[in-house]
Design goal:
The structure is a single chain. This protein is α/β, with parallel strands linked by helices. It folds into 2 domains: about 90 residues, Translation factors (Elongation Factor Tu (Ef-tu), domain 3, Beta Barrel), CATH 2.40.30.10; about 160 residues, Rossmann fold (3-Layer(aba) Sandwich). Helix content is about 30%, strand content about 30%. It contains 9 helices and 16 strands. Strands 11-10-9-8-12-13-16 form a 7-stranded mixed β-sheet, sandwiched between helices. A hairpin with a 2-residue loop joins strand 1 and strand 2. The longest helix is centred in the C-terminal third of the chain and has 19 residues. The protein is globular. The mean pLDDT is about 95. Bound molecules: flavin-adenine dinucleotide (FAD) and FE2/S2 (inorganic) cluster.
């Protein structure tokens, strides 16, 4: 079973893990994900491969505690083993070389920019990371990203660090030529509402944009149909056809509706876990 080598809290609800997983590290590419399972009979959840080190045989993931399973993952620490880590799954992010690539990250999505920026900088692209958060305390991995790309643009809603405003406002300024200048390609990874706003920002000026869709997944291998997203009017499975798609072709209305389909059951699962924890604490 893959062993956790290092963990640290990035925010009160976001945890960084470095995991010993040489077979996954050997073939991982930017944009891919793993399916994690932490207990027998438990659900599998998809988590992006934030980074990988082929020499050390390790992968990095960043998990935000939002429900029962992510809470169980975040309870693990260095030395613990994870029952299953399957991957790498999904397709890699494909962008023609030689241009200005701008990665836009929000929440745990900023973590996925680590390997993306490193790989694209190494092959000679100009690279900019735009990181957004509500406030300075919720920003993650800015210091780790600085050596991996040419520019890091920080945006906070309350102005406590960097540009005061949304990532889309800073992106619009860049498209108009400000700061690092107009990107040729944008890759947005983060909350669905943010990815949709990025798609609307780049649609008019015609900047090619990819979004990393995060629908509900069950198997992660194209068998259940749970991760269906509508792209250019066609049903696509995010786990095998994505998770990255042309942002201007994604039907975000349907995607956002589908992600809320099991809110009641998800709350029940979290309540059950909290009950169990309270019983054990007594
Ligand atoms: C390809 C892919 C990559 C992902 N990468 C990461 C990652 O690197 N780090 C990370 O923390 N999370 C990531 N996610 C989201 C993560 O899989 C979900 O947060 C997790 O499955 C929730 O499980 P849970 O049992 O803890 O919470 P649940 O009880 O299932 O859900 C709790 C809350 O989170 C919402 N939620 C559940 N699943 C998703 C989802 N897929 N997207 C958005 N909201 C969701 C629910 O609507 C609910 O409000 C990724 C998802 C996909 C599809
Ligand atoms: S998660 Fe089952 S088809 Fe994609």
């Amino acid at each position: 079973m893959p062993r956790i080598l290092e963990t640290r809290m990035l925010t009160p609800v976001t945890k960084y893990f470095r995991i010993d997983a040489p077979f996954i590290a050997a073939s991982a590419q930017p944009g891919q994900f793993v399916m994690l399972r932490v207990r027998d009979g438990g659900e599998r959840i998809p988590i992006t491969i934030a980074d990988y080190d082929r020499d050390a045989g390790t992968i990095t993931i960043v998990v935000q505690d939002v429900g029962a399973t992510t809470k169980r993952v975040c309870a693990l620490g260095a030395g613990d083993e994870i029952l299953d880590v399957a991957g790498p799954l999904g397709g890699k992010i494909e962008i023609a070389p030689g241009g200005h690539v701008c990665g836009v990250g929000g929440g745990f999505g900023s973590a996925a920019l680590l390997c993306l920026m490193r790989e694209f900088t190494a092959r000679g692209d100009k690279t900019t990371a735009i990181l957004g958060a509500r406030s300075k305390d919720l920003l993650i991995l800015a210091d780790e990203l600085r050596p991996l790309c040419h520019n890091v643009e920080i945006c906070t809603d309350d102005g406590s660090a960097g540009f005061k405003g949304f990532v889309t406002q800073r992106l619009a300024q860049m498209i108009d030529g400000d700061g690092p200048g107009r990107p040729d390609h944008v890759v947005a990874i983060g909350p669905m509402a943010m990815m949709r706003a990025v798609a609307e920002t780049t649609r008019g000026p015609g900047v090619k944009t990819l979004v990393s869709m995060d629908p509900l997944m069950v198997d992660g291998t194209g068998m259940c149909g749970g991760c269906r997203v509508n792209v250019a009017g066609k049903a696509q499975f995010a786990c095998v056809d994505g998770p990255c798609f042309d942002a201007h072709q994604v039907d975000f209305d349907v995607a956002m509706r589908r992600n809320k389909a099991y809110v009641k059951e998800e709350k029940q699962a979290l309540d059950r876990l909290t009950c169990m924890e309270n019983r054990e604490a007594r």
